[in-house]
Structures are given as C-alpha cells and as structure tokens.
Amino acid sequence: MLLAAGGGRRLGGRVKALLRHRGRPLVELAAGELRGAGCAPVVVVLGAGADEVVACARLDGCRVVRNPEWESGMGSSLRAGLAALAALPEPPAGALVALVDQPWVSAAAMARVAGALRSPETLAAAAYAGERGHPVLFGAAHLAAVAAGARGDRGARDYLRARADRLTLVECGDVASPQDIDQPADLERLSGPPPHH
Known about the structure:
Elements: E1 2-4, E2 20-21, E3 24-25, H1 26-36, E4 42-46, H2 50-56, E5 62-66, H3 74-86, E6 94-99, H4 107-114, E7 123-128, E8 131-139, H5 143-149, H6 157-162, E9 168-171, H7 187-191
Helix pairs in contact: 1-4, 3-5
C-alpha cells in the first residue's frame, strides 16, 4: 500500500505525489518499486490533487483509492487503504505500507521487509542503522486493529510502539535511504545524486 495523499503543507502546498524524480512523479516511481518488490495488488491512496495525479501518473495495475478526508492526516489515508484491502475478494496475508515522500526506499528494501511475513501475527519494519522506518509490514491479524487506531497524523505509530517487543526490524540501510521530502530544502535532493546508504 502506498500512502500518497499528502498536500505537502511544509512544502508550500505542493502535492507530494506529483513531485518529480528521475523525470517521473514520485507516486508512479513508488508504485513501481512496490510492484518490483512483488506486492500485489498495489493500493495507492490519493488525496491532495487526486485528479491531477491520476491524469499525470501511470498507475496501471494499481488500485487507486481516493481519500476525501486526506486533510485530517495520514491516519485517514491508512484507514482508506486498509478498507480497500479488506474489500478484496481474497483478503491479503498482510499489508506492506510505504510512503510516497521517501523516493530512495527501493524495491530491494520493500521486498526484504515483505519477506519477513511468517504468519498473520507478523509485525515488521525496515530499519536504518537500527532505527525503525518505512516500509512497515502488518500481518493480516493486525489490519482491523490498525485501521481502528489510525487517527490524525499518527497512522500506526502508537500501535507499533505498544507492540515494540513483537516488532521485527529488518535492516535495509545497505539498499535504501529513509530520507524524505518534507521541507523546501529537501526538493533539491530530488535532482541530485542519491543519498549514500
């Protein structure tokens, strides 16, 4: 699942999904990395500028979900994406949640975290130098509770913190960087060389 609904408040209202990197919108690149990691279906949650995103980005094969409540924060987008997964004819074994504003989280990192799925009870997250980051993997047993607790900008942070003893950290610092695009100064990174792993 790709959370791509943010309006980029700290970026002066620039829609994060539409920021360009390597000549393509971030949302398209990130959805491609999820596909490359073997995730299917890829659910893309849009909010800010959704019509423009659908018009500009090639999201073939993705299930696009529009979150009308995107301004309330990431929690509503996580709920919208999980609701789309719950509505699938065949419920998934788990959900890998990635963020659109982390363009250097590679398919290799996503596949590594997805590969940690052992049972419906699995909870796993990418780690960078031992620090928890994204993507995050929730086994099927967690999905309803994660959706119920997703509020405001916190997404699943509180849920994960309360279960830290059961969370598997999967080191990805050798194949990805967790740097995000959050402030205007970060935009320059999109055209520069990739950050060192």
